[in-house]
Amino acid sequence: MQFEVKGFREGNSGVVRLSVTASSPQEARDRALAQGYYVLNIGRHPKDHVASHGAQRPPLSAALLSAELLALLRAGLSLPEAMAAIQTRQRSVAASRVVDQLCKALKEGRSFSKALEDTDAGFTPLFIATIRSSEETGDLVESLTRYLDYDRRMNAVRAALLSASIYPTILIIAGFLVAVFLMGYVVPRFSRIYSDLGPDRIPAASRALMHLGQFIDSHRTILASCIAAGVLMSIYALKQPSIRTRLNRVAWSIPFVGARFHLYQLARFSHTLAMLLRGGVPFVNSLEMSVGLLHLPSLQNNLLAAKRDISEGRAISNSFARHGLASDIGVRMLAAGERTGNMAEMMDHVARIYDDELSQWLERFTRLFEPLLMTAIGVTIGVVVLLMYMPIFGLASSIE
């Protein structure tokens, strides 16, 4: 990994920038110090940052590390012993390198949160803040348990959304493939059968279908290449953050669906905020750390505006209501939490309410949407089949 180190050295004029190859910021600092430089700042090298941007997932999952650590700590091992035991397990090269870095940092006397922060595994600020809070309270087991519970809830929300979209996606793909088979294979062969009939013996709709089938059959290679190129371009486009942002804006502009996307964002935000508050992170700092969870720039701006209002002494419930960061029932519950002083527990209750509301909506939506989709696909295929056989029905009527 490349790091850019800003520093100066006695005998040289001005600040210089060094490109240092290291496995962590601490190692980059040590190498710069070894060369006689006084380090002012360390950051990721721009080229390295671009290369690493868009990585699909970190080499070591925070949830997996938490689960393994929790099991070993509950068995009576200390943190260094537990990490040493984890180090012996077989895993990928990148994950093993991260575990080695953590074990080395613990042996050097660094705190576990600092070791997590210095690795190149890309652990989220939420996970690092959870470990840092456990170092203040001295209860790492409780913090890991809380983080795993948080991760399970977040995965449950994502799994519900994914499961709700799987069946409709399969139906759409299956319907598309059947339509392609009919138009690219069956219809052209029917058109050859009807070629001896006069144009006046074939209904206009059937003629149009036959012409379309013949066009697809004669240009199948070009059309297949266009479809494949379209799929590849769509996959590439969906990986671009700017295009995903535009698609999010389009989805949010849909009146019925946009409200559910907003609710999903609020559920994630509330779960994370409750997690940070339970870990002892101040409320304003928790808001700042949660900005990245809101994918729409307008919501991020609303959160920053609410943070400013709260920093100026305004009530949390009023700030959230003013900037659209809580529903009506969420605002009332937050007001109750302000009176009792237990905002972490109240934020957790709000997140559960959002989860329940989202689950109920998904269940109703799938029950309504799936039959409608099946009906639309069936009608489309039925119309194609009917238009193919209409000339035969006309011939039978003339014979009679």
Structural descriptors:
400 residues; Ubiquitin-like (UB roll); Receptor-associated Protein; 17 helices; 74% helix
- The CATH architecture assignment of the domain at 62-150 turns out to be Up-down Bundle
The CATH homologous superfamily of the domain at 62-150 is called: Type II secretion system (T2SS), domain F
Number of strands: 3
Largest sheet: 3 strands, antiparallel
Mean pLDDT: 80
Q: List the helices and strands in order.
A: EEHEHHHHHHHHHHHHHHHH
- Portion of residues in beta strands equals 5-15%
Distance between the first and last residues' Cα: 82 Å
Q: Using only CA atoms, what is the Rg?
A: 30 Å
Unreliable sequence segments: 46-56
Q: Structural class of the helix and strand makeup?
A: mainly alpha
* CATH class call of the domain at 62-150: Mainly Alpha
What count of helical segments does DSSP give? 17
Query: What is CATH's topology name of the domain at 62-150?
Result: Receptor-associated Protein
**What share of residues is helical?**
over 70%
Report the principal-axis shape: elongated
In order across it, which strands form the biggest sheet?
2-1-3
